[in-house]
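tokens incoming
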């Protein structure tokens, strides 16, 4: 995958200290990664870039909404998302990204591309189970919800209350009451 130029930061020309970068993430960003779980997205990512003499510190903060389909009803809805990520970039002999919080880049490097970190920050910030708020509070009216209710198992009622219960079950119930 080709890196996107707008997410490349040439840190060689930056002075020591704190720098801020802002990114507006939309649908085209996720199309680049061939990620199609979001119907639409509107996310703002703030990057606090702290250049020090021996390392770089990057603090990513993402906030916005993604439009996804509900896992229960398949109804689309806007899901708010918020996430943070802190990355330390050090210089070494060769490129190494085995540690998720520390990135080692070769001494001769003069720029860093942050698109993969922004992508992971957003995708991991969205919950794995996506339930429409109307399902949780009972306000959503949907054919799928009606069908699920119809097919859900009902409580079994005893047809004959005089039916004799095996006395062994009573002994087991007593175990629960003993302390």
């Amino acid at each position: 995958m080709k890196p996107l130029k707008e997410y490349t930061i040439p840190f060689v020309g930056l002075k020591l200290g704190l720098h801020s970068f802002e990114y507006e993430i939309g649908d085209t960003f996720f199309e680049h990664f061939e990620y199609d779980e979001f119907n639409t997205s509107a996310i703002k990512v703030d990057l606090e870039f702290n250049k020090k003499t021996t390392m770089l510190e990057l603090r990513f903060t993402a906030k916005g909404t993604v439009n996804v389909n509900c896992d229960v009803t398949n109804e689309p809805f806007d899901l708010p998302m918020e996430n943070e990520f802190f990355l330390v970039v050090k210089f070494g002999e060769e490129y190494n990204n085995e540690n998720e919080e520390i990135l080692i880049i070769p001494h001769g490097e003069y720029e860093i591309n942050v698109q993969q970190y922004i992508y992971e920050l957003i995708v991991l910030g969205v919950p794995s189970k996506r339930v429409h708020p109307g399902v949780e509070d009972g306000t959503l009216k949907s054919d799928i919800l009606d069908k699920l209710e119809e097919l859900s198992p009902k409580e079994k009622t005893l047809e004959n209350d005089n039916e004799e219960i095996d006395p062994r079950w009573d002994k087991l119930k007593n175990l629960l009451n003993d302390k």
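note: The first strand starts at residue 8 and ends at 9.
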